[in-house]
Amino acid sequence: MGMADIAEVLWRDVLKHNPANPIWWDRDRFILSNGHASMLLYSLLHLTGYPLSIEDIRQFRQYGSKTPGHPEHEPHLGIETTTGPLGQGIANGVGMALAERALAATFNRPGHQIVDHHTYVFLGDGCMMEGISHEVCSFAGTQKLGKLIAFYDDNGISIDGKTRGWFTDDTPRRFEAYGWHVIPRVDGHDADAISKAIAAARDEHERPTLICCQTIIGWGAPNKQGSQSMHGEAMGEAEVAATRRNLGWNHPPFEIPADIKAAWDCRPRGAKAEQDWQGRFAQYKAAFPDLAAEFERRMRGELPAGFASLARSETAKAQAAGASLATRQSSQAALNAIGPLLPELIGGSADLTPSNGTLRKDSTILSAQDPAGNYVHYGVREFGMSAMMTGLCLHGGFIPYGGTFLTFSDYARNAVRMAALMRQGVVFVYTHDSIGLGEDGPTHQPIEHVASMRLIPGLDLWRPCDAVETTAAWGAAVIDRQRPTCLVLTRQAVNGESRDPSQLELIQRGAYVLIDPAGGTPEALVLASGSEVGIAAEAVRALNAAGRRIRLVSVPSTTVFERQDAAYRESVLPAAVTRRVAVEAGARDSWWRYVGLDGKVVGIDHFGASAPAKELFKRYGFTADNVRGTIESVLKK
To answer: Could you give the strand order of the β-sheet that contains 485-488, starting from the edge strand earlier in sequence?
Structure first.
């Protein structure tokens, strides 16, 4: 209710959109970062002509409805992103604005502006208080994202009451310091003032704009407006009746008069806007057919022809090379191989580029001065980087990847979760994956991180053991556009493992038999991931040479393996073989499902220490001798 007047001006008079085709490529993007105001968005979508019915409105917050408590990404309904965790909407918006500018710099030509739209964001006090808003708005100012326009709902109220007790920032000056164009003290209930502010914002091309709208939460409710009770509590029948009288609204609930409905219908105007754009695009296509075809491919989310074949070929090349490298180095080599074929691959790092190995040979730095670049220096902003990458993905035309240390994934975790919730194919590159990073000590040594991230639904996690699995993991991450991927990589060098061509193909299934003994059914199964595969392989080979029958299964991705059919899973981990050991330099919890209560896990459930990696591995039992002894102990059962 407090932002309704702002929304009315923006959606009816300014926003470029076509409700009959919500996924038109050159539409403006609208994001409700303060997602608890979801009914405002649903009302706008219904009134302007999107396929959201009045019955859908009636089913607000009910199971299976199109109108959940917080907006959930559904582009065919006009919902650009999922919001609710405050601050992430504005972060997604920064990513979308970055995408628009980068695509425009790549594809537009003189007289042919085929990429030319704005990103509008509504946000409130909660978004402003969340630290991620600082990360991304500082970045947006540095990048000079002139087509990003944010409306700050300055109502001074949050769930606990009046915010002056805990939020006294001078927000306009804060954003001026970021390099934003700030329009302060706009009456959020004055349509003319709002219209003038939007016009001024659209006239500013070198800076993002913050329009500070002074509003009253629950405007129109005579007894409750301006109070925290309007933030999340039901108004109650008496206050609803009083509000209707106060506003002079005498129509029955859920009934919209025909004249009002017609006045709000944006389909005719939207259809004309898209038709005009289609005409311009046809001219562009005639003048620049190759560019137009590439633009269409990228916006449709299609990979270049032959990419899957290239990925397999590069995996085979890595096997032939047999290099002993840190998997972070192998990752960079894979990027150098696939990058030139993927102009949509936009990389970056949270100020750890040399350590993460995320800079490719074909990388050019994206900046305000070079907006067509393909590599982003995000600065020390892990959370912001992750949410902005999701915005890049949501916009279309890009496959974003970004790096940091695995332990710092904690900073970004909710953004990773949101990418999974929205099924966005972001690639999170996490290096320095275990105590194997050594001397930096327990503050930087991940323990619980891999196990906990495996719990996020819809997220693929790969922990490859060598250059071959790393290259295969990159191929899988790029090809699967329906879920995000975490690539978990070592700081220390690892040896390459031997494989035949059939084993190379099976890597894509998440787990496969790396060493199989001669002489029939294995006596025991050993499962390992990452740098511990080499340690386990040494132990298994020694036992097999001594006459035992031990199978080693490399498990680069438990999440992918769990999606395989039952027959394949049984072929790799036969249920009849119950003597099992798992080896991973991290928390043990995620491995018990594979080894059973009678199995054993060589893992680490405590923090590490500052020491050379080889010493830590020895002290904590990650040696071939200890793994061999553990296997022998289960064989005695």
So the answer is: 375-377, 345-349, 399-405, 427-431, 485-488, 460-462
What is the crossing angle of helices 131-143 and 88-107, to 10°? Answer: 20
- Report the alpha-carbon distance of residue 61 to residue 77 in Å, rounded: 16
The string of pLDDT tens digits covering residues 547-589 is 999 999 999 999 999 999 999 999 999 999 999 999 999 999 9
- What the block records as the tokens of 190 is 């004055």
Residue 232 has pLDDT above 80, yes or no: no
Q: Which of 274, 382, 469, 523 is catalytic?
A: 382
Q: Can you tell me whether residue 554 is helix, strand or coil?
A: strand
* pLDDT recorded at residue 145: 98
**Residue 264 has what pLDDT?**
97
Is a pLDDT exceeding 90 seen at residue 233?
Answer: no
Q: pTM of this prediction?
A: 0.97
Q: What is the pLDDT of residues 271-307, one digit of tens each?
A: 999 999 999 999 999 999 999 999 999 999 999 999 9
CB 395 within 8 A of CB 388: no
Q: Say if residues 424 and 386 touch (Cβ distance below 8 Å).
A: no
CA dist 264 and 224 (Å) reads 28
Q: CA 519, 525, 529 angle in degrees (round to 5)?
A: 130
**Catalytic residue status for 8:** no
Report the SS3 class of residue 131: helix
Question: Considering all CA atoms of the chain, what is the largest pairwise distance in Å, rounded to the nearest integer?
Answer: 90
Q: What is the spatial distance between Cα 44 and Cα 283, in angstroms, rounded to a whole number?
A: 33
The two three-digit tokens of residue 262, written as one number = 């017609």
Q: What is the number of H-type helices and E-type strands within the chain?
A: 27, 20
Q: How far apart are CA 591 and CA 584, in angstroms?
A: 9
Report the residue count for the chain: 637
Residues in a beta bridge with 525: 551, 580
d(CA 601, CA 250): 69
- How many Å separate Cα 461 from the centre of its chain? 13
Q: In this structure, what token pair is assigned to residue 5? A: 């007047």
pLDDT (tens digit per residue) in 101-151? 999 999 999 999 999 999 999 999 999 999 999 999 999 999 999 999 999
pLDDT band at 637 (very low <50, low <70, confident <90, very high): confident
Mean pLDDT of the chain: 97
Which residues does 109 contact at the CB level (< 8 Å), separation at least 6? 284, 287, 288, 291
**Per-position DSSP letters for 387-399, written without gaps between them:** HHHHHHHHHSS-E
Q: Which residues, other chains included, contact 563 with Cβ-Cβ below 8 Å and sequence gap of 6+?
A: 510
3-class DSSP assignment, residue 248: coil
| Measured distance CA(552)–CA(34) in Å, rounded | 50
State the amino acid at position 456 in one-letter form. Answer: I
